[in-house]
Amino acid sequence: MLGRPANDFAYFDAPFTALAHRGGITEHAPIEVENSLRGFRAAWEFGFTHLETDVHTTADGVLVAFHDEVLDRVTDASGRLADLPWAEVQGARIGGSEPIPRLDDLLDALPAARFNIDLKSPSAVEPLAATIERHGAQERVCVGSFHVASITAFRKRTGGRVATAASPTEVAVFSLLPGVRSRWPLAGQAFQMPERHPRTGLRLLTRGMVDAAHRRGAVVHVWTINDRPTMERLIDLGVDGIVSDDLATLKAVLVERDLWEGHA
């Protein structure tokens, strides 16, 4: 393993990691305000300690916590984030009411929360690393990316001081080629993955894959799971975490199984 094992990082110190996807859905934050500070605060107040977000940069380099490349789907504004200055982006409202937060805002507002961060654009590598350093948040975050070059550059920039998730290539190789699992050079601490490959439909998650990850010192988190039967089945399979929009169901399942480690 090239990187440090997961148990070297405080981020992974709970026996099971419950992750609120873009803030999740709670009584005080409907899906319409996804990835807003309101949504993340509501998830924290509901007891979730681990919150999932994506990051992009604006045209003038401001790091924002937002899922899409464009504003159109969830805000009352339009345009590509990469083409717009922060002065314009900060006027957009998620669900017509909530401002788009910077990652700085989330780290300041929720100082005890841990964040799973999806690095969405190559331009965000340096601002993300700098933001984490500025807040001393190395043990509070785990960073992943669908872009191999981006996560590779982030690992190099942070020198192994920040936990990272396996790239899609690392997930596919480790899942689909059992013969290389014992010697594949893992650089990250977590396999954060769907059950099946999004394009081919091939099954990625198996008991053998989970067991092999554990032997290599890595954890397995599965996204995005919103139904009780699948949550139950995955826990039985031995996964270490679940990403969900349905926070009430995930919390109930974990409480019943004595796996809930939230702060409330």
Topology:
Blueprint: E1 17-25, H1 37-45, E2 50-57, E3 63-65, H2 86-89, E4 93-94, E5 98-99, H3 103-109, E6 114-119, H4 125-135, E7 141-144, H5 148-158, E8 163-164, H6 168-176, E9 190-193, H7 207-215, E10 219-222, H8 228-237, E11 241-246, H9 247-256
Parallel strand pairs: 1-2, 1-11, 2-6, 6-7, 7-8, 9-10, 10-11
Antiparallel strand pairs: 2-3, 4-5
Helix pairs in contact: 4-5
Question: In words, what does this structure look like?
Answer:
With 264 residues, the chain is an alpha/beta fold. The chain contains 9 helices and 11 strands. The strands form 2 sheets. Strands 1, 2, 3, 6, 7, 8, 9, 10 and 11 form a 9-stranded mixed sheet that branches. It is globular. It starts with 16 loop residues before the first strand and ends in an 8-residue tail after the last helix.
Q: What are the main properties of this structure?
A:
nine-stranded mixed sheet; alpha/beta; 264 residues; two-stranded antiparallel sheet; single chain; globular; 30% helix
Proportion of strand residues: 15-25%
- Termini separation comes to 35 Å
Q: How many beta-strand elements?
A: 11
The secondary-structure class comes to alpha/beta
Give the overall shape: globular
Question: Spans of 5+ residues with little confidence (pLDDT < 50)?
Answer: none
Give the helix proportion (percent range): 25-40%
Mean pLDDT: 96
> Using only CA atoms, what is the Rg?
18 Å
The arrangement of helices and strands along the chain is EHEEHEEHEHEHEHEHEHEH
The helix count comes to 9
Sheet of most strands = 9 strands, mixed
